[in-house]
Amino acid sequence: MTSYPLSILKTHLRAATAAAALLLATGARAADLNALIWCDHADPALLQPFQEANGVKVNVKEFEGTGAGLAIVEQSQPGDWDVMVIDSIDVPRGVEKGLFEPLPEDKLPLADLFPQVKMDGSTVVGGKRYGITEKFGYNTIGYNKTKVDPADMQSMAALTGDKYKGKVAIYDYYLPVIGMAALAIGKKTAELTEADLPALKDELLKMKANAKLVGEVTASQTALATGEVDILVGGGEWVTAGLAKENPALDFSIPKEGAVLWSQSLAMFKDSKNKDMALKFIQYIMSPEGQARLATSSCYWGMPANTKAALTDDQKKVLRFDEQPGFLARAQAYPAPNADLDKKMQDMWTEMLQAK
Amino acid sequence: MNSAGNNPPPRAGRALPRASSALPWALVTPALGWTLLFFVLPFIAMGFSSLTAHEGGGFTLSNYSQFFTNPSYWQAMVNSLQVTAIVTVISVLLAYPFAWILAEQVPERWQRLALMLAVLPFWTSYVVRSYSWLLVLAQNGVINRALTGSGLFAEPLQLANTRFATVTGFVHFFVMLLTLTIFANLKQLSPSYRKAAADLGAGPVRTFLHVVLPLTLPGIMVGAFLTFVLCIGDYITPQILGGNNELLMPQLVMMQIGRRGDFPLASALSIILMAVVTIAYFACARWLKIERA
């Protein structure tokens, strides 16, 4: 492996602050479980039963975006972290960096998972499983059914037509929305290449011309909930389900062109000093009880990957649990571009944001 | 009588005692250490990072060349400069009369309370304040309800998620900051200047334009520079209030980190932003000091 002086210096500078940063961030002790998580895992209702049952404290650090998460790991000492939540499509990035430990398939409820969300193409690398899908959902069309015609929401053409101009928000994450643009122009999300970028850009610009805002999770949720907009491009159960009690008018559709399937996985760190507890944590999250709590986390709701999740009938109704086979049949994979195409897609997204 | 009066002045050519030369260094060491640890070292790390390829880690200048060759990146800098300039000018225009009223019209005994009320917005969380503005400016917000309810407009205006919203959020914050710096400058201004101007036949307007305003220019420039620096580097306000309908430099920097973790490009963009701030500093360096008038 080639070592560049700049990289070495950078590594040393990072390492100088790493241990202190972790201690300051989490107040971690060696016996604790240290988890790099998304906000849905920070819900005490999810963590407390595991902590009480195992007499362990789970120290969590939230991050957004795989790049930010991997940067935290790089700036930490080996063994600082035990488990990580990661976009299923990004599991191979962690494996390439030598971060993850293979998971014992015989100790996980893989047979109970919705088959379409196992994502073995990403979660299994070199014949070994490094991630297990814990939660999934759709980037599709979220809307207020009292303000728009639900029939219109069965086609992505509504997103670029004049009827709802100025009533649309776009979720600010380039991969799923580019995936939706691909579906709108009849492309398969798994087969996108650089040659598709001009057509995708045209579609994105049409969406932008109709949009009032392009917002991250909270902003887009707020816009839909407060009536600032009536449609959220890229929205789905992760926006509408959690707000169902306060605002039952919010709903989502899987249009005839399809939807983009998002999924998040759990992975264990190779250098974890607490691998038994890390596996117990993963088993807990994948258990029917853990899955129900994760699916209905206060930060955002989403479909549990485990078909046996202990959800109530009301919760299943809100999540449209029984409709999943049909939804999954029409959903397409999250775009998983290589590093070069990923950069070009992000630059295309930047152009779209800057367009007047 | 001060202590200096009791001691003979040191003779020419005689070395000062060792303790007196070490003391200033001892006093300044914490500040130097702090600056070294939390500014110089991170800046060097950022500089190295900006010259590193994202993939492979070798030396490269491509992180800088991307900024100059990608129109969207360049546009982010233009947007940042435009928004910062608008915010700075509006904030100065609003803060100066406010500071003048506080310093000249409010009785001395009420000035402390008035100042405290003036800086009240600083006491609330920056994020909460920004989201509050989002709700105020929203389609169903207070302003639009008032405008449509009074019959002035048939349809609500798009105020939230615009550059107008970003500027409003910024101005609300920076007017307070500028008011403080200008107020301090006005209070330092000796009344004898105005009396002298009056004795020489100058009216209030002429006295203000030719005496007060030039003498308070340093206070204005200090506040304006602080506004410039804080505004051009701010991520929260444009992100919450601007609705991502245009990107500013801090948003562009953050975008490189989220999914791709492209710290080298983020570092290069940050250093370019720092270069702009440095240019702004040198452009107004001559005014960036407040001297007792």
Please sum up the structure shown.
With 356 residues, chain A is an alpha/beta fold.
Element layout with pairings:
The complex is a heterodimer of chains A (356) and B (293).
Chain A lengths: L4 H22 L6 E5 L6 H11 L3 E5 L3 H9 L8 E5 L3 H6 L3 E2 L18 H4 E2 L2 E2 L2 E13 L12 H4 L7 E4 L2 H11 L12 H14 E5 L1 H10 L4 E5 L1 H4 L9 E4 L5 E11 L5 H12 L1 H8 L7 E2 L8 H7 L4 H7 E3 L5 H16 L2
Parallel strand pairs in A: 1-2, 1-3, 8-9, 8-10, 12-14
Antiparallel strand pairs in A: 3-12, 4-12, 5-6, 7-10, 7-11, 7-12, 7-13
Chain B lengths: L17 H33 L11 H8 L1 H35 L2 H11 L7 H12 L4 H8 L13 H26 L2 H9 L4 H29 L3 H6 L7 H10 L4 H21 L10
Helix pairs in contact in B: 1-12, 2-3, 2-12, 3-7, 3-9, 7-9, 8-9, 9-12, 11-12
How would you characterize this protein structure?
Chain A has two domains: 14-136 and 262-331, Periplasmic binding protein-like II (D-Maltodextrin-Binding Protein, domain 2, 3-Layer(aba) Sandwich), CATH 3.40.190; 138-261 and 333-354, Periplasmic binding protein-like II (D-Maltodextrin-Binding Protein, domain 2, 3-Layer(aba) Sandwich), CATH 3.40.190. Chain A has 15 helices and 14 strands. Chain A has helices at residues 5-26, 44-54, 66-74, 91-96, 120-123, 157-160, 174-184, 197-210, 217-226, 237-240, 275-286, 288-295, 313-319, 324-330, 339-354; strands at residues 33-37, 58-62, 83-87, 100-101, 124-125, 128-129, 132-144, 168-171, 211-215, 231-235, 250-253, 259-269, 303-304, 331-333. In chain A, helix 8 (197-210) runs parallel beside helix 15 (339-354). Chain B is an all-alpha fold and 293 residues long. Chain B has a single domain (74-287), classed as MetI-like fold (Orthogonal Bundle). Chain B is built from twelve helices and no strands. In chain B, helix 3 (71-105) packs across helix 7 (163-188) and helix 11 runs antiparallel to helix 12 (263-283). The relative contact order of chain B is 0.13. The model of chain B is unreliable at 1-13 (pLDDT under 50). Classes of the chains: A alpha/beta (356), B mainly alpha (293). The A-B interface holds A 4, 6-7, 9-10, 13-14, 64-68, 70-71, 166, 172-175, 212-216, 219, 222-223, 226-228, 339, 342-343, 346-347, 350-351, 353-354, 356 and B 41, 44-45, 48-49, 51-52, 55, 57-59, 70-73, 75-76, 79, 131, 134-135, 138-140, 158, 160-161, 239-240, 243-247, 252, 255, 257-263.
